[in-house]
Amino acid sequence: MMKLGRNDLCWCGSGLKYKKCHSSFDEKIEEYRLKGAIVPDRELLKTKEQIEGIKASAKINIEILDYVAEHIKAGVTTEEIDQWVYDITVKNGAIPAPLNYEGFPKSVCTSINNVVCHGIPSPDVVLKEGDIVNVDVSTILNGYFSDSSRMFCIGVVSPEKKRLVEVAKECIQVGLEQVKPWGFLGDMGQAIHEFAHKNGYTVVREIGGHGIGLEFHEEPWVSYVSRKGTEMLMVPGMVFTIEPMINMGGHEIYIDEEDDWTVYTEDGKPSAQWEVQVLVTEDGYEILAW
Known about the structure:
globular, three-stranded antiparallel beta sheet, single chain, alpha+beta, 5 helices
């Protein structure tokens, strides 16, 4: 990390001298680092200009999921959902982040019932009454990335599935309550894990959230089976996703051998996930995409 003199311009792009801007902030981070904490590099902390760019991207992401919420129903194919996402994204001058990402063939992930995540849209997959489905949208606008997902209940679903979806959503709020500057990501991870477990569910271990903003996936990796006081220090300017995958049965999962993307629960029981993109602020957090 480049050392700055007190009268140099601050690294954050504010135009202020370092001593009047981030000097004491950097000293505080260094204190945590010397105590053995995992701390973010400057590259992970978003400037005011970058945050505005991410918010503009997130606005499109939210618009897409709002459209899906209004039109999704039994009889719709996941291929149709993919087309909705693509059309709205390009209409806004943006790019669907999943499309061709490491070979992913579609513009959105659609994960139904026992699919945990990364479900690939298909004209052969038709939503039916009683399904629960996660629609995971990610957008690039002018080089800035946004990412969020929502669960949808198709028609009348079983009480068991409905409760799973509700508890998965409540896990997001439980996690958000732990997003505070100078706290740790593990504080959030433990709170979510304990809440899910208390309600009789398990949390997927191998897949978690991630930093995001200038790239699709940045550091840190965000676990939801972590322990309080561990993982990366949360500081103002960090942007990451909260997206725990909550299983009705066991936490074990496997990846489809044929497409190398679709993740299923090992026991075939349903899974649910909501995702929000959050910014750590001076006094808490701001949800950027939902």
